[in-house]
Fold:
Amino acid sequence: MADQHSDKRLTRRQTLGIAGAAGTAVVLGGGAGKLLSGMAEEPDDVTAATAARSCKLTPEVTEGPFYVALERIRKDITEGRPGVPLTLKLRVVDVRKCAPIHGAAVDVWHCDAGGLYSDESSNGTSGQTYLRGVQLTNKKGYATIKTIYPGHYTGRATHIHLKVHIGGKARGGTLRGGHVSHTGQLFFAESANSSVYSVSPYSSDTQQRTLNASDSIYAQAGGTNAEVSLKGSAASGFVGAIVLGVNPKSTPAAV
Structure:
């Protein structure tokens, strides 16, 4: 689903808005929407064409059966769950202006190293809240969340769920008001998955893995464009980044 403004010529100001006033901005592997940012003090040079390829709507996909409207604002969502550390740097961009959105709320949830979601009776985790949380984007459009690399379960490739809320406010540690402008899922390269699943505690999970190529939602989400760009290793942990292109005026129906 391409945005109608994606072919517009960008001004230098718009280009720098995507690159960020502080941080590297690089499209990895030519993938639209995968800017690895916030890793350096000064930005790399970014062409207008590169930035333009990133100013496209990120496809909508199903929220799945495990969404819980917890809406708790917190930077670290691990709650002590064991696993390979993963710091997510999620940048929200307004595709109409090709500029970062300040104050958007990125709501993420995913399974633990054993493939279980919190607060799910079917997983025996009712009342637990691990690996669920919300962060508001800063002036450069970044929401940074500390979590662990997700595990896997039968029938789905490795993934993280997310929603982008627009117009909400932080009150008493929770998100109040606003509307959802995007529901999506993030994926990872199979090489990273294999590396992580060879170490404990992931290696004790004997459930059959579903590869990206066999997961229909992976294709719906944009294939390699939906993969988080990673730096690091299974031994030391990862920093993962991706750009989410949204129309803040949009209110797509949940699927």
